[in-house]
């Protein structure tokens, strides 16, 4: 458990603080602008990260919502039940993940429809010969063509939303003390470390997307949709009574952190 504690300590210092939740949205926007600028200044040399076949893209980014969902599920359940001892309250907070699933599904489906509606089928990426007989992306690809439409960056959207959601949920550690229960302490720490490294992967792959892929406008729209989804939930809707609510971040019962010993 000591190596896990040593790993968790600097991560808590960096990620579990209000300034991180305040500045991460602006940091992501800055990474998108900076990466896009570097891409626009000149052709970048090929690298491992510029290939869509890199392992982080295949095994993590392609499954970004699944990774986020299944690591946040036990973390939210354990930490919120530990603080409230209320099953209904815990389930209410877990419904955050159902909201996130709806956000992911609706936005990615909308992106696909926009690309389909705005696109045309060409013989090659050079956009030299137009195939007017193929009216959808699916028909175009089946016919061996290349579909060119407004392809809003799903990666920019989802990695933004996932990173911000994880950081918001980790704020519960401000008021949670598991020192009296070594087993619980180890479980919460393990989940926290896993979520922290996942956040670092999301931010890194977000920058790689900005650096190597998509047009600027496509990345800008994707990032703004991700930021809007986060703001609309954690900064607006979750402040209302009829919502999943925010993670517990303070306690009026005591100036000390509540101990969770069972």
From TrEMBL:
Cellular localisation: Endoplasmic reticulum membrane
Give the GO molecular function terms: coenzyme A diphosphatase activity; diacylglycerol binding; triglyceride binding
Q: Where are the transmembrane segments?
A: 21-44, 64-83, 95-114, 157-176, 188-214, 220-238
Gene Ontology cellular component? endoplasmic reticulum membrane
Q: Does the keyword Hydrolase apply?
A: yes
Q: Which residues form a coiled coil?
A: none
Q: Which keywords fit this entry according to its UniProt record?
A: Endoplasmic reticulum, Hydrolase, Lipid metabolism, Membrane, Transmembrane, Transmembrane helix
Q: Which Gene Ontology BP terms does the record give? A: cytoskeleton organization; fat cell differentiation; fatty-acyl-CoA catabolic process; intracellular triglyceride homeostasis; lipid droplet formation; phospholipid biosynthetic process; regulation of cell morphogenesis; triglyceride metabolic process
Membrane-related topology note: Multi-pass membrane protein
**What's the name of the protein?**
Fat storage inducing transmembrane protein 2
Native species of this protein? Terrapene triunguis
């Amino acid at each position: 458990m000591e190596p896990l504690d040593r790993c968790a300590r600097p991560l808590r210092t960096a990620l579990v603080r209000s300034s991180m939740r305040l500045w991460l949205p602006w940091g992501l926007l800055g990474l998108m602008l900076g990466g896009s600028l570097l891409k626009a200044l000149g052709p970048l040399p090929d690298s491992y990260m510029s290939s869509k076949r890199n392992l982080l893209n295949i095994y993590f980014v392609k499954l970004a919502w699944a990774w986020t969902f299944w690591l946040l599920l036990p973390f939210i359940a354990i930490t919120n039940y530990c603080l409230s001892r209320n099953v209904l309250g815990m389930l209410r907070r877990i419904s955050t993940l159902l909201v996130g699933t709806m956000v992911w599904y609706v936005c990615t489906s909308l992106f696909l429809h926009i690309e389909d509606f705005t696109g045309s089928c060409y013989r090659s990426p050079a956009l030299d010969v137009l195939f007017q007989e193929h009216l959808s992306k699916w028909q175009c690809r089946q016919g061996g063509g290349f579909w060119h439409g407004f392809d809003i960056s799903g990666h920019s959207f989802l990695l933004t939303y996932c990173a911000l959601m994880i950081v918001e949920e980790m704020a519960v550690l401000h008021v949670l003390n598991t020192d009296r229960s070594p087993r619980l302490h180890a479980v919460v720490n393990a989940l926290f470390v896993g979520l922290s490294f996942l956040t670092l992967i999301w931010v890194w792959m977000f920058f790689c997307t900005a650096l190597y892929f998509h047009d600027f406008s496509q990345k800008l729209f994707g990032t703004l949709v991700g930021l809007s989804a986060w703001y609309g939930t954690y900064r607006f809707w979750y402040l209302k009574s009829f919502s999943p609510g925010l993670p517990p971040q303070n306690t009026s019962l005591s100036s000390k952190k509540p101990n969770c010993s069972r």
